Amino acid sequence: MSKVFVDTDVILDLLMEREPFQKSAVELFRQIELKNIKGYTSPLIIANLHYLLSKIYNKKKSIELLAELLKIIVITKIDGETIKQVFKEKKIKDLEDLIQYYSALERDIDFIVTRNIKDFPKTDEIIIIKPDELVKIIESNKERP
């Protein structure tokens, strides 16, 4: 089973029903619920989501939405070692995305799914992919005998 780390933008697409991105976010989370893939995100993303959702809805609604999300998604770890790995990088384009990357790397994640591919490091260790592309891969794997 593939391990998939879901970035902030994709979760917001789902929770805020943002078009035209909602469809692929819904399908991605449907695959997580069906246990065809295992979904992950980080504590930093949860904090960012709470901040953003509280501004759009309110704190109570934000907590409700995130509590539902946490029923199907695993939270990765971010600790001092994660941060030390980040600062070993020679070039840091986006600090937050690099923290997400190393948090995912510690869990042997197969894919980071985001619409913001350009700010993640280009490596062979984790595939950085857009939600609609990952959904196509999942669908094509289901068609194989």
Classification by helices and strands: alpha/beta
CATH architecture: 3-Layer(aba) Sandwich
Determine the CATH topology. Answer: Rossmann fold
* Largest sheet entry: 5 strands, parallel
Domain module count = 1
So how many helices?
A: 7
CATH class: Alpha Beta
Number of strands: 5
**Please, what is the average pLDDT?**
92
Shape: globular
Strand order of the largest sheet: 3-2-1-4-5
The H-and-E topology, N to C, reads as EHHEHHEHHEEH
User: CATH superfamily, please?
Assistant: 5'-nuclease
Gyration radius, rounded: 15 Å
Question: Uncertain regions: pLDDT < 50 for 5+ in a row?
Answer: none
Range of helix content: 40-55%
- The portion of residues forming beta strands comes to 5-15%
Head-to-tail CA distance between termini: 16 Å
List the helices and strands and how they pair.
Layout: E1 2-6, H1 8-15, H2 22-33, E2 37-41, H3 43-56, H4 59-69, E3 73-75, H5 80-87, H6 95-105, E4 111-113, E5 127-129, H7 131-143
Parallel strand pairs: 1-2, 1-4, 2-3, 4-5
Task: Identify the notable features of this structure and list them briefly.
single chain, 145 residues, Rossmann fold, five-stranded parallel β-sheet, 5 strands, 13% strand
